[in-house]
């Protein structure tokens, strides 16, 4: 049976109505999906005790460095050490030709003996004259002359003794010894050369670099913040505050020392103050003149509020966090940041430990609009 025209129209209308309903349903689903709040990852601030620190660049310096110079003139007879080796205080390093100074010493000793004999004679003459003066056998003028003769003999004896002391000192200077424990540098003069003179020839250097010192500059305000109040910087506190150092290429700051000196004035041209630390150097890993990384820990901050560094944004007003508040509505919260601790930034003001902030999905969140929060956890080491 063939449907009539009216039946066909009715069927087409029904089909059109079904399609329209399906299209409207599809559009409504897409609109509902668009209106769904975006998914973000959130976390609460971590509260823990932390130790702030500051990093600097320092330079090493030997605890003692001595230039060994010739103190007398003469030809260099011998070199008694091997370059670059350790020596102890008093070890013989060089010998300068001693023969002229031995002769000078012997001459001075002879003059001293003569002066002693002259004094003995002068004393004897004076005693004889004084005895004779008791019976008026000699004049007062002769007594005065003998008294003056004894005084001249005493002065001559003192002069001869001083000359002998000088001669012995000069002879001793022919044997050049190390004044400190340390490591020798290279020999600056070869055997056979004439040394001494007006310039006092440099022979070598001896450097003591165990322990070694590290110098670095720090601003006055940062120093106060790290180490404490200004009235606590006294001699008793020095030598107790730690610092850490690293050579180039080392991971972290594996070498620990103590700060033992702080300069007594601020450099007005830079606004910094010079600080010195002492570092063990038993294996001689640090060489004088080396640049090193320096890390100085400060006082422990109790119950610091920490957030993920990546969650902090920056705009013209400064630093901010996106905080998820009531009804999961996002709020732009200005914050005052502190130091960084293992990827976590201290927040000194702007968020409480019980609030929630957005970690991931910052680009999808808008202040004043809701989000769908998903909790994230992170353990933090101090």
Protein described:
This protein has helices at 5-34, 99-133, 140-173, 220-227; strands at 39-43, 46-50, 53-69, 74-79, 86-87, 92-96, 175-177, 182-184, 194-195, 202-219, 241-246, 255-262, 272-279, 291-297, 301-308, 313-315, 318-324, 330-334, 336-341, 344-349, 356-360, 372-375. The chain contains four helices and 22 strands. The strands form four sheets. Strands 1, 16, 17, 18, 21 and 22 form a six-stranded mixed β-sheet that branches. A six-stranded antiparallel barrel has the order 3-10-13-12-11-14. It has a four-stranded antiparallel β-sheet with strand order 2-15-20-19, with no helix packed on it. Helix 2 packs antiparallel against helix 3 (140-173). The protein is elongated and about 140 Å long. It is α+β, with helices and mostly antiparallel strands and 382 residues long.
A few lines on this structure:
With 382 residues, the protein is α+β, with helices and mostly antiparallel strands. Helix content is 28%, strand content 36%.
